[in-house]
Amino acid sequence: VFGLTAPTSTSSGAFTYEIVAGTESNPNVAKVDSAGQVTLGEAGTVQIRANQAATTNYAAASITATLTVGRIAQQSTLVDGLVARWSFDSANTLGVNAAGTGNLTETGGPTWTSSGKIGGAVSLNGYGAYLYLPGGSITGLPVGNSSYTVSAWIKPSAFGQRGIVGWGAYGSGNRTNAFRLHSDGGLHNSWGANDLIMGGRPNEISLNGPWAHVVATYDGTTRRIWVNGVVAVSDTNRGPNNATAENFAVGKTAGNEWFSGLLDEVTIYNRSLGAGEIAQLASGAGSALSITSTSGTFGAPLSLTTIGGQGTGAISYRVVDAGSANCVVSGATLTTTSGGTCTIAATKAADRNYDESTSANTTITFNRISQSSPVVISTTTAIAGVNLALAASGGSGTGSMSFTVVSAGTAGCSVSGTSLVTTASGSCTITATKAADANFTSATSATTTITVSKQVPTIAPLVLADRFYLGAGFTISAPNSTSSGTWTWASNNTSVASINSSTGAVTIGVPGTAIITATQATTPMHSSAAVTAELKVLPANPTIGVLSIPSKTFGDAPFTFTAPTSNSNGAFTYSSSNTSIA
Q1: What is the distance between the alpha carbons of residues 205 and 184, in angstroms, rounded to a whole number?
Q2: Taking the mean position of all CA atoms in its chain, how far away is CA 366?
Q3: Contact, 223 vs 197, CB < 8 A?
Q4: Most CB atoms closer than 10 Å: which of 44, 332, 366, 510?
Q5: Domain spanning 467-538: which CATH class is it, in words?
Q6: Cα dihedral 542→543→549→550 (10° resolution)
Q7: Which CATH number fits domain 375-453: 3.30.420, 2.60.40, 3.40.50, 3.30.70?
Q8: What are the residues whose beta carbons fall under 8 Å from the beta carbon of 555, sequence distance 6 or more?
Q9: Residue 254 CA, distance from chain mean position
């Protein structure tokens, strides 16, 4: 509000003032009373006419001038340490924390009104209506002995113990932070063993009067209560505090301490704001435009949101740097072609009263998403000592596939590249992992059991030379084999050839044929196996003594001679080479 200075005039006639109607004059820009007191409205231009009354010597006259009300800049940044802000600017977003986590739930019938200090406000009835956090927590909410700032615009319709905002374990000593009205219209801050109380100030906080800006701060040493940007009361005798994050509510503190009236711009910082910053909040200008959407997930469009800024100008977004995420913005939706980061900025357009405002550049991180688990598709049976080629399918992205032995088991499994190496029969368990890439996190399959069978050894042929009756014994050499198992020996005809089962030593018996079996014992890697060979024992040549025949004379009588000695018991038969002689 300001007063007009009367123009100079040769007449002494009194001046009165009025707004001039017309296409070039906007009556919403200013109002003027007849005495020249001007009340400013919105930005723009308006024509004001000064009318001078007639006097004895001069006729009535008038003069017109144009008043221009310029737009103002939108507010500078005040987001450092911001934990929560409930602006109540829409009935559809009444409980939404515009600064991060912790959207509140309505209970008892809080309502929205467009008659807020900045935009809309929440209206509370004083007997059960409030907003609360049903579960979880608000990230960064001050607890314990932390520094803090709690700020709100209030327009009470009733005094008494009326909660503005609070949290903690009510009823437990030194475990709450509560900021509320006092019985005489003052303010009460519980944070520590001793409460800080400000007495009533009817010129600043009145029933159904103008909006009042109230703040409670603690900087680690001093608590302060501020009203309309000025410190009202402070102390350093806070005592110990163990406030917890539970039972968070706006419009209510302990018990039935429900607020009655309007609340707007309920804001919490995890630091103690300075006097200049609190004066900025108390100016009612709000906060600077800033982007609150700072992370998304690859493959899902990100809805962009902001807080701050003034006026009715539309919000638009632009990509400053597409970055590794290769971001593209369409309206208020950001999409990407890969995980990573990009940088964007928001602009709130100018309107009649405010200049255009652009946020600081904001980095958006698009996190990788989970991929489906791969599946091991290679055969689940293997042979000990023979490498098994491993294979898996599934998953997403470009990450490489690798294999891991979860349990080596009795098979002594290990992995070499994409091959499973085994040292014994039995079983082991493995998994397949598809590595992360720019878009997907890594994923591991369910465990797969590999059953490992013994390997059948490869045994060289067993060849035995023929032997003769009464021949010397001999020891059979074990055949070559891929197994290291011990050998045992057996004969199916011990009268022809008997054999030592452990050493393979053979004792020759009577002529004939015996089947010799060499059996190799099982090992961790190889199964038992056997090989056979035929052993022939041939008759020996007998040792025969001299056949002694005496000399005879023609005409001698027949005679019988004695059989020669022999180691054979075979019967002798005789023949003559010349039967005319004998």
Answers
A1: 10
A2: 12
A3: no
A4: 366
A5: mainly beta
A6: -160
A7: 2.60.40
A8: none
A9: 37
Domain range 290-367, its CATH number among 2.60.40, 2.60.120, 1.10.287, 2.40.170: 2.60.40
Which tokens go with 516? 């010799």
pTM: 0.50
- In this structure, the dihedral spanned by the alpha carbons of residues 29, 33, 38 and 43, taken in order and rounded to 10 degrees, is 0
* Predicted confidence (pLDDT) per residue in 15-39, tens digit: 999 998 876 678 888 899 999 998 8
Burial classification of residue 8, based on how many CB atoms lie within 10 Å of its CB (0-12 exposed, 13-18 middle, 19 or more buried): exposed
How many other β-carbons are positioned within 10 Å of the β-carbon of residue 520?
23
- Contact assessment for residue 180 and residue 260, using Cβ atoms and an 8 Å cutoff: no
- Asked if 406 contacts 431 with a C-beta cutoff of 8 angstroms, the reply is yes
CB proximity list for 164: less than 8 A, separation 6 or greater: 150, 152, 154, 179, 180, 181, 214, 250, 251, 253, 259, 263, 266
* pLDDT tens digits, 170-192: 777 666 788 999 888 899 998 76
Structure tokens at 510: 């009577």
Assign 56 to helix, strand or coil. coil
Nearest to 74 by CA among 418, 315, 393: 315
